[in-house]
């Protein structure tokens, strides 16, 4: 059963991110055949145009490529491209906000690193 969609993000982006996650998690590897648009439409029970919009973006970015009459495949280097893209987004979406909030709370860089290590379970944190 498909997981419910987040109402705060366009569905085509969520479908796209789901495919990206499958590539990042090695569920889909380079040269593997990706789910077809029809499979995704049937799985998610959503409009064909919505799925196509997400797929088209992945093709335009060189993450997927089409083999005429065969289907959609994961492009060579797709995982590396996705890792780089997500790292850039990570800085904008998380690190920038973290640093801004840390500055408000007068949390030093050393304390931030200690907190991150604690959360990752690699070190003890003393409050």
Automatic annotation (TrEMBL):
Chain ranges of the HTH gntR-type domain: 9-77
Keywords from the named record: DNA-binding, Transcription, Transcription regulation
MF terms (GO), sorted A to Z: DNA binding; DNA-binding transcription factor activity
Keyword set includes Ribonucleoprotein: no
A Pfam cross-reference name: GntR
InterPro entries: Tscrpt_reg_HTH_GntR (IPR000524), WH-like_DNA-bd_sf (IPR036388), WH_DNA-bd_sf (IPR036390)
Record bears the keyword Transcription regulation: yes
Record protein name field: GntR family transcriptional regulator
